[in-house]
């Protein structure tokens, strides 16, 4: 079969893609930017990639006509607190228009459980997208899930952040709300299991794990598995807005996502039918086992995808391709060079920067800068990085976004997503003479931007000098060189 995956570079799409290829399907991936699809060359050689922004009016004949089935994995909850429902409806309408000229028979849509009379704005939007897709030209199969538990999922990462960082929590009353978490492996079982199955045409199914837990019980169970001490005191007077700020400051989530999550967390999301589970003979994975499986992937550095790498986790929602060309005029720069004795090790050091490895010098100052950024509404340092030693264009590195990553040409370019009065780039390149070039570029916005740069200049001098020196000299066999 020829299968279309929308949102192919998203959390679910990145995990679904190799499964479909392993089953022998031809796969067409739609993304807004091809460079954001961070798959290895072996997968690239097997797929067709089409750039489409489903918020824009469809272009004629942009999709192959011989598509047999399509996965609709697009959502906009993280991007806005006001008009994401309108964007989701528009995307679904345009998706239907794109499919009209094709021979597609089935659309598979991953939605949310919508069994309560009173729904959050997010769940209302999910239900409205279902309605829109039912009006499309293809048979629709809807899979309705509660929170998804897996390495890199937003729900798992938020619980992980809370439990790992806070031994004592004062929590809002929504922690008593019940939900039915489902393991990412089971979600993928359901998504692949309904493909081409006519009994599933024009129907909606709840999918869930075997456990019905409150959010409080989920955090306590996580702490038990991780052998953490955790005390939770829930109070009734924390408003949704305060709760959203609480999630924003403690976890790596953006404020927009936190606000929408809190709104949804007040609604119970519990499955009311197990028809599909029985039809496909799927054994549900318990919440405890889902956590253990997630940490197996984390410890083996095999996290396939993370919500943090999505554009909506950062400061900018616009196309970052326009930032690839670093400006020369109207900018201030810090340029440093270092002759390399071991250029290959230096290249590996560059590709491991951020996250657990840190920034090679004065990590405490980086953390303070990240905290300051978080306090004024920025992304802070908590996003980390998805892979320990791999970098792809579009990936997140703490409060930076990867704009260009060309290991063959030995060049890495980052763009700042921290809140600054201007625009900032950080670049490393190793030339043919084995000299490492490190350039920090700042294009200030007005007088405030220039004051910011010159105020930070003394810190930049020592930090950037120490950074290039340690990138050049650091070796995993001699780790004491780090931050010295």
How are the SSEs placed, and which strands pair?
Blueprint: E1 2-6, H1 11-22, E2 26-31, H2 41-44, E3 47-51, E4 69-72, H3 84-99, E5 106-112, H4 121-134, E6 139-145, E7 148-149, H5 154-165, E8 168-171, E9 178-179, E10 182-183, H6 184-193, E11 203-207, E12 213-214, H7 215-225, E13 231-234, H8 240-250, H9 255-265, H10 275-280, H11 287-299, E14 332-339, H12 343-351, H13 363-375, E15 396-397, E16 400-406, E17 411-416, E18 422-430, E19 435-444, H14 446-473
Parallel strand pairs: 1-2, 1-4, 2-3, 4-5, 5-6, 6-11, 7-10, 8-13
Antiparallel strand pairs: 9-12, 14-19, 15-16, 16-17, 17-18, 18-19
- In round numbers, the mean pLDDT is 85
Low-confidence stretches: none
How helical, in percent, are the residues? 25-40%
Query: Can you summarize the main beta sheet?
Result: 7 strands, parallel
Number of helices, where a helix is a run of at least 4 consecutive DSSP H or I residues: 14
Oligomer: single chain
Q: Walk across the major sheet and give the strand order.
A: 3-2-1-4-5-6-11
Distance between the termini: 56 Å
Shape: globular
How does the helix and strand content classify structurally? alpha/beta
β-strand number: 19
Beta-strand content bin: 15-25%
Radius of gyration: 23 Å
